[in-house]
Design goal:
The structure is a homotetramer.
Chain A: H1 3-21, H2 28-35, H3 39-45, H4 49-69, H5 78-95, H6 97-107, H7 110-120, H8 128-139, H9 148-167, H10 175-189
Helix pairs in contact in A: 1-2, 1-6, 2-3, 5-6, 5-8, 5-9, 5-10, 9-10
The first copy, chain A, binds a DNA duplex (21 and 21 nucleotides) through helix 3.
Amino acid sequence: MSITDKREEIIRASLELIAEHGFHGAPMSMIADRAGVAAGTIYRYFENKDALINDLYRDIQEKIYSEIAKGYQPEKPIRERFQYLLRVLLRFFIAHPSECRYLEQFHNSPYGAEVRRDIILRKSGDCFLYRELLEEGVAQQVIKDLPMAILFALAFGPLKYVIRDHILGFFELDEPLIERILEASWDCIRR
Amino acid sequence: MSITDKREEIIRASLELIAEHGFHGAPMSMIADRAGVAAGTIYRYFENKDALINDLYRDIQEKIYSEIAKGYQPEKPIRERFQYLLRVLLRFFIAHPSECRYLEQFHNSPYGAEVRRDIILRKSGDCFLYRELLEEGVAQQVIKDLPMAILFALAFGPLKYVIRDHILGFFELDEPLIERILEASWDCIRR
Amino acid sequence: MSITDKREEIIRASLELIAEHGFHGAPMSMIADRAGVAAGTIYRYFENKDALINDLYRDIQEKIYSEIAKGYQPEKPIRERFQYLLRVLLRFFIAHPSECRYLEQFHNSPYGAEVRRDIILRKSGDCFLYRELLEEGVAQQVIKDLPMAILFALAFGPLKYVIRDHILGFFELDEPLIERILEASWDCIRR
Amino acid sequence: MSITDKREEIIRASLELIAEHGFHGAPMSMIADRAGVAAGTIYRYFENKDALINDLYRDIQEKIYSEIAKGYQPEKPIRERFQYLLRVLLRFFIAHPSECRYLEQFHNSPYGAEVRRDIILRKSGDCFLYRELLEEGVAQQVIKDLPMAILFALAFGPLKYVIRDHILGFFELDEPLIERILEASWDCIRR
DNA sequence: GATGAATGAGGGTTCATTCAT
DNA sequence: GATGAATGAACCCTCATTCAT
């Protein structure tokens, strides 16, 4: 197993276990077992559990951004761009349920609160694309004129909820259903 | 202190501490301290920590239902009833941030997943009112014809997101803003 | 076993084990075993290992002071008082070898360095009696006129060395020998 | 880097780090870093950490002996020879504080106890010069007629104490002060 | 010979739970 | 019924040592 593989295995194991059992339900020893390494090995790649948790978060964020970047077309109308973004997110989380559950755990924890605050206060570049799009929509008077934080909630609240229930196995998401959800999300923020 | 008071104090202490620090950030000893009882005493009222957590959840649910019941008017139009429900929820969580944060912690944990499954599968009476309302709306063709679980997500997703950010202090919710959020939520599910 | 007894047992076990094996050769688990308590119990009486170590130091210091206080006669000549002090110390350490070895471990560690600095800089009341006596002797011109810290070294250096070797079993200290050592120590500082 | 250099670097790094942080505050990895070698490399030169610690002790002892040998004049009177020895020791430790602190750490540990026993029991040639001198002084009736181990304590106790406090920065040692300390040490053992 | 990633036993500490008082 | 001291399994993390490269 190469060095990169080992880090990758630890990341993967952490992702799965934390997604499934939460931060405190996934001891380092369990992560080590699942990754096929010794407990001490994790500490060669991550300073401590906190660092592992934060690094994993960054990893996922980057994957999502790169996914979005593949087909984002800034010249398209607001609505199309909005639906493109949500479509990518939905598909990503459907394809990567562990990543989704992990983000949920993360956001719902002291770690996440800080990150969210930075995003809201624009200290972090995360979510820049989303904000830019919404601001443009407000300026063009196609999106409701509400505080940005509220618009985020209206835009992404339904999606988050839908994905969680899908991952919990409450229903299946096929393409027509996805499109209708995107439509509804747009209804939520459009003028 | 009467027996009931003691149980009440334990509930209150758990609520506050778990809301603030999460399940694993609120040891039984800390709860006991805050409640003004001995650690062992908790176990006379609750079988163990899990039972305490679940009981607390039921308590909050009941408080919310009783709040809703106060002014719910089944004869009003779907839209008005929907906005009434959301308004009560919003106000309740604004007035009771600890309860709100607790529910979030709860739903975002192994405890919550089970509860949610029961609701969706109609094994639990919880959320019956919401479902009834949405089903009636679908039948009357004023609400989008989507699977019930999806409608739940569309209807409550924005609200959940909004409340969390409000409690985290990202913005203030005044009455006009609340009304606009209710309006947007309705836009999300209406035909 | 009473509460006091338990604390006492932990103190005793720590004393013996640290005296024998040093700070890092005496794990908390070993201390717990020797004290006849569970590992967690130690933390009811001491915040952590550091606190235990420091508390134990204070305990010993107090025992020594109370021993000295029993027969100290401020009106006696410098020389007699000096020899009284050293005699008490010698006898105490002969009777309590673990305490002696513990103090040695303590002084020879980050813990001790700080304590010693405070004593030298007069921030701590520890050793006040010793200093007072030496200062008086210098004023009366019966003790060499040297910086206080040097006088401490000349006065107590032989004693420390002697005790350590006695405890290591290199020789026996009987009363005549003790008196000759006191005499030599006095020779070291007297004019 | 030659083989000898590598060993030298490891020795130097160990010396500094152990002097500063103690045995358990100087992990092998830290020593390796400081020495500019890989952790595993240390084990080519030293069987294990214990061996390294003991070898380092021997190294320092040899340095001191060679320093003494430079100017020792066996034909001089006892007193002059004694003061010469102490003067060399004092100057050596003032010039080499790490070596001094290391020896202190060493003597104050399971390692040191064994070494000291061997010296006292004459199993080790270490300190032979000191002993010879003291024995000669006793025979000539210029030094107190006490057991050898006691004389060692009287002779070197003040010096050890003085040096430690000097290294801890409690005072400065200039030449006149050194001479007065040597004088006092002599007072301590002389008839 | 040299490397340094990997190991895993063992360290200090926490905390849900029990039970004698 | 209430207490809270005691328990001990389990947690996160360190580090002396090994061994494939």
